[in-house]
Amino acid sequence: MQNQLASIAMLVAAAAVGNAQAQTWPDKPIKLLAPSTPGGPPDAYARALGDLLAKELGQPVVIENLPAVGGMIAAQNILRAPADGYTLLVNTAGMMTITPNANAKAQYKAADFANICQGVEAGLVLATHPSVGATSFADLSRWVKAQKTPPTYSSYSPGSPAHFLGYQYGEALKVDMTHVPYKSSPQQITDMIGGVAPLGFVQIATASPHIQAGKLVAHATTGSQRSAQLPDVPTVAEVGMPQLETTVWFGLSAPKGVSPAIVKRLTDAHQTIAASPDFKARMATSGLAPTPGVCGDVFLKKMNEETVRWARIVKATGFVAD
User: Fold this and answer.
1) Residue segments in the chain with a per-residue pLDDT below the cut of 50
2) Whole-prediction pTM
3) Are 118 and 264 within one domain?
4) Residue 293 belongs to what domain range?
């Protein structure tokens, strides 16, 4: 009984300390880790979020870019960070749902973090060079199946949703297409426009100017709704392949064990930011749509479901991240 009372007293004391810290938090600058180079889509989200969080919380938010190993380095830095709310993470779909399946060195899962909210998302677009001659999704599928040698498909990064969506598309058509990975979206687009890589899933923000200029042909987008940038292009569900539906998303996480009071402040601040005209306008320039309401357990549930989906495909492709 004495041991039980002592344990209870320790828990109460720890909670009191946590509440006291939460009441004064933040009283110094906050560091926000972004798993991309400056100027990349996750960085665009990080900088807009950081600017607006600073206004909401009354302390500077400093962005630190850690662009390495599918987000693994940034994630592992957060796992080692103190759970005091002064080091936060921009998480990504790839980092949280693909990298743990594809890289044995990751050794983390979504539940190992305090996941605050998903912030933004964007679908991809299946596009081709005009020389392919397909003007619709059905035309493209017939073209793929008619080739004597299975065609290649490109992605902006190995182990990305674009990589695995190409595999799923070939799987649905029963055609064993060959994946050609690039190191960035601009590199992929350059070769697609040049006809070197005639087929691929591409980031909409990067591809839409070239689609509108007639340099690429769009066949389907992968979001649940039509893209505001490509409103005339049907979704994958509309063309009969709902299994290809996916978005690239970014959100906010903290070290597990952060005070519930701090988590609540971050959640409330993030929700306010996601609804603000300033944030929406800044994200629109990067082709990203805010996703308010995907927070806490709802966010974790989504990540767990996507982890199961990608685990099957990672295994089927035999992909192993370096």
Assistant:
1) 9, 11-17
2) 0.85
3) yes
4) 2-122+248-317
